[in-house]
């Protein structure tokens, strides 16, 4: 098992999650679609790829598209068609497909600029394109389609022009119409690091997703985490003892595989580069370094990008919360936002809304009426960055 810290893991590098994979595959193979709405680096893409592997093994067709690199609605359709053409059931000879492609090929490609004669514009033809494309999908063939980072594309569509809101709603309705075809054997997995629920709720289009069940990946149990650290140690010739693995897990408490991987990488670095002895002190040492590094910058950026004008209140709430391991009361959170300039009625309303979003987005959990960081590691990182 390789020590991979960032990109999705596949094959032997995918550790654990057996019951979750069984459960998720069970849901898909009995006719459900799945959305994995978890923060970045929880392990969604790796998990979805594992499900695609199983589907392939069972003889399904599969498609996997990372929407994070798609820059427009048209570019999405181009990419989707490119993938569909590789499928076993894509029949060059079908009249519907011939008609679709003849329209599609006349479109000015999304990556060409300037006037190209004789080519049709996307805007004027997109309704037809969507409609025809929906009609050519063969719903009798088992096919698993994975769209990674769906909400990133939704934001691209939303912000493209003044019709963004209408376009994003139409797009989500179109996707929904593909999912709800009766007895369809096409199944869908979406991943979203950016709260999809927050997105659809904010734009009043939650109904476009109400047919699809979400699954939130779990953190690893302490035993599973110790097992993974020992496994990494064995495969990478680092003498991680059970005691050291337990120390690491004790510090992390909330164990995402990514956290285990970066802790392991740090142990490996300390031992082999800094010549630190591998003993019971090393886990503290590794942890102290990690919280000063940039592994969690995406958690800061997400707030900057997704919370709009409310971000200053979010930073105020989190700054307060990261200072108290046991958690902060709602009243104190409200005080923190009035201190940054809100009047009391607005503060109550905003804190209620932001707590909901921050829980959804994986920052906070609620325990007996107190709010605290879900991950001690993220909390200590936050403290280093914004308080110390
Ligand atoms: N099942 C797993 N086994 C081992 N490491 C994992 C696993 N899932 C995730 N990881 C770790 O998390 C990192 C991010 O995984 P990824 O699937 O890309 O997450 P996401 O798609 O949620 O951002 C990987 O580089 C790896 O370090
Ligand atoms: Mg991913």
From TrEMBL:
Q: Which SUPFAM superfamilies does the entry link to? A: P-loop containing nucleoside triphosphate hydrolases
Q: Which domain of life is it from?
A: Bacteria
The record, for InterPro entries, names: P-loop_NTPase
- State the Gene3D superfamilies in the record: P-loop containing nucleotide triphosphate hydrolases
**Protein name listed in UniProt:** ATPase domain-containing protein
The organism of origin for this protein: Mucilaginibacter calamicampi
């Amino acid at each position: 098992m390789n020590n991979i810290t960032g990109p999705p893991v596949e094959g032997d590098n995918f550790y654990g999650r057996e019951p979750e994979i069984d459960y998720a595959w069970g849901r898909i193979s009995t006719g459900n679609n799945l959305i994995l709405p978890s923060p970045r680096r929880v392990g969604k893409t790796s998990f979805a790829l594992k499900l695609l592997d199983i589907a392939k093994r069972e003889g399904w067709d599969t498609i996997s598209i990372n929407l994070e690199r798609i820059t427009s609605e048209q570019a999405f359709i181009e990419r989707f068609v490119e993938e569909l053409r590789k499928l076993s059931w894509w029949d060059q000879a079908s009249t519907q497909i011939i008609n679709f492609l003849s329209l599609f090929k006349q479109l000015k490609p999304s990556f060409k600029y300037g006037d190209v004669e004789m080519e049709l514009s996307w805007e004027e033809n997109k309704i037809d394109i969507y409609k025809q494309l929906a009609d050519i999908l063969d719903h009798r063939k088992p096919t698993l389609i994975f769209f990674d980072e769906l909400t990133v594309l939704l934001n691209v569509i939303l912000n493209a022009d003044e019709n963004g809101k209408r376009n994003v709603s139409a797009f989500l309705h179109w996707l929904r119409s593909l999912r709800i075809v009766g007895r369809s054997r096409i199944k869908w997995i979406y991943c979203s690091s950016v709260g999809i629920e927050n997105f659809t709720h904010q734009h009043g289009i939650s109904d476009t997703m109400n047919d699809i069940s979400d699954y939130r990946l779990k953190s690893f149990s302490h035993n599973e985490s110790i097992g993974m650290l020992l496994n990494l140690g064995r495969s990478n010739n680092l003498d991680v003892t059970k005691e050291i693995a337990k120390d690491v897990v004790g510090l992390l408490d909330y164990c995402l595989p990514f956290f285990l991987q970066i802790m392991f990488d740090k142990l490996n670095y300390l031992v082999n580069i800094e010549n630190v002895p591998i003993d019971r002190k090393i886990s503290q040492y590794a942890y102290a370094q990690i919280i000063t590094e940039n592994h969690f910058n995406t958690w800061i950026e997400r707030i900057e990008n997704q919370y709009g004008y409310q971000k200053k209140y979010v930073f105020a709430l989190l700054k307060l919360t990261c200072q108290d391991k046991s958690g902060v009361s709602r009243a104190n959170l409200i005080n923190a936002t009035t201190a940054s300039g809100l009047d009391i009625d607005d503060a109550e309303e905003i804190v209620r809304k932001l707590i909901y979003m921050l829980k959804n987005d994986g920052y906070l959990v609620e325990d007996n009426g107190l709010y605290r960081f879900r991950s001690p590691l993220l909390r200590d990182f936050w403290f280093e960055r914004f308080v110390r």
